[in-house]
Amino acid sequence: MLGLFGTLDLASRSLATQQEGTAVAGQNMANVNNPAYAREQTVVQISAPLQTTAGEEGTGADVVSITEVRDSLLDNQIQSENSATGSFTAQQSALQNAEAYLGEQITNTSGASAASAGGLAAKLSNLFDSFSSLTTGTGDPATAVQSAQEVATQFNQVSASLSQVRANLNTSIQNDVASSNQDLSQIAALNRQIVQAQAGGGTANDLVDQRQQTIENLAGMVNISTTAQPNGSVNISIGGVPMVTGNNAVDGLQTHDAGGGQLLLQDENSATPLSVTGGSIGGNITARDGPLAALQTSLNTLASQLILQVNNIYSAGYNPAGGHGQPFFTGTGAADIGLNRALVSDPSQFQASSTAGAGGDTQIALALANLATQSNPALGNQSLTQNYAQTVSTLGNAINTATDQLNTSQAISTTLTNQRSSESGVSIDEEMTNLMQFQKAYEASAQLVTTLNAMMETVINMKTA
Amino acid sequence: MRISSSLFTNNLLSQMNQLQGQQIQLQNQATTGLKVSLPEDDPAAMNQVLALQTQDAANTQYQSNITQLQSTATTAASAMNSLQTITEQAGEIATEAGGVNSSTQLANYATQVGSLIQEALQAANTQDAQGNYIFGGTINNQPPFAATTDSDGNVTAVAYKGNTNVSQCQIGPGQTVTAQVPGENTTGTGPAGLLADSRSGADLFRDLISLQQNLTSGNTSAIASTDSPNLTTDENNLVSGIAENGVLQSTLESAGTAATQLGNSLATQTSNLTSADLATTLTKLDQTQTAYQAAMQSGVMIMNLSILDFIQ
Question: What pLDDT score was predicted for residue A465?
């Protein structure tokens, strides 16, 4: 049998157990607002019983471990959804940037219908209307030259801005790659610490929380696959290439200039191209090489067709002094479209006539004005203005798609996070209740100690007298 | 389902965020009166609005063109009417000359015809408000009719310096007209010459000069047999020209009316696509604000409850 000293030992171990319980409750409450924290539970087991003639006699309870309540399946789902959210956020942001620089915004002007007055659509429209004005023989070529200059400037500005957006996305990708590599190293280091801690049969709850937070952060930047190992470490691979194996960050990410402003991802060791579709890196690449590139291409094609078609017609014309054969636009695309300098300094050189010496002939101006509605095979059988309007709405659609996908992803993320919070989150009510439980148990065990003390006093005092 | 402490607050925050976002959007709509502002708001509507604004701007340009052309056409009509009057007067003189024997009277008539020739030259060299000559075809920077005079100051010949080309101007979608008229057309094809045309046989200046010369020389039989019928041909030719001018003016007027109607229609279409219905917007804004208030109030009520308040 246990005896008095045995029972005293039981009582003191019980005190320790209840203390442990209150400490864990305290730890949980301290971390109630820590989003990365998973609540801990004490696992109390009865101590090894003593075999007596009267049967098994219990020897109290011990805290065998402090485990955290964590669902690794939920964790995986959340990390995967993080990649999706990161990607759509990046796409939406990049494309909204491009939309702002494109400058098409409908506003109300008093006395006129609502219109997008500051963008390329309005400026192209002004240009063709100024050509139309010239057909009456009373229009001013200076107005046409001015309108054309505005069109060219708008093309140049939008083109430069979109190139800047592209450059910014590339910088963002590089920054994210650097952060990702840091995260990978950190995960490897945490792996090592966790394996060490768990090797001795212990737990490493805080380190696991930290590692999970780092993994989710990494997933927000690039889509990863994780494999949990039996020894407690987590292996990470990106695009099928192992990045973290056990305690070591065996590989890393690097960027690679594939030409034409395309910055793509490779792994550091073997320069294998990595196809990244998730995370902010994936989102930036998708936006850059998809809708943004398409937008730049459309604008370039539009500009080059404008230059080509206008110059074709215009160079066949004659100006009042008999001059002939000069081009109207210079340049080849949206970035460098400009106006013939000679015409800008002297708009009266405008070649509006189809025959030499006939100042009242404005048929070149008429052909130029008709370009506005002429369908162009190089623009998918649309006119210049129709083609531009479609380019604008295509961008709008791309943004809407990204926004819808983002909203869906965020809703899923919220549901999963709520589930995890429900599972692993700290509830003050629960911890307070536990605290009270442990407190009462402590009081009871303390009372046992007092009782045993009194009993031992009695025993000792049996000798004297 | 187990509820953790952060679950409630996270939910509340996300709901309030959502409601805030809706409030901002609705308030924006109410202020600007627009439900479509950026391409992402409604890409299809944006596409249509861009097309409509282009059409509208073009329509305004057509209206401006029409006004310019109406001015030119009116100037031309006035000059043509003068020329018709001159031709009529010359015709009357030619008729009367047949019954006159007195050489003094004939000489008088010759002088009158000389004045008529000068008036006709002036009318034929009419300029528009910009100083362009209107009866030279597309050559408008010099007087289309140049006269050679003899030592007595009589016009012996009038040469046409213009051409027979005319320029089309836009007055509507796919619609063009010309307000230019060639003073003379001896090629046999193209627009009719106002004063001389080989198809009708008209040549006003030739006939006026011939009349003056015949009056001076007293050749009344030539006047009766050649000049009189020719002058009738000339007048008919002018009348054709005036009729065409009339057609031009009425075409311009209908085009102007059509443009006004088109402008109204485009404005309505644009408004339908872009305008936010204020009543609906304000109602939704009110609802959203109520929901926002409710979220805040209920949130605070629940957050204030804590087990700690009840533990002694």
Answer: 59
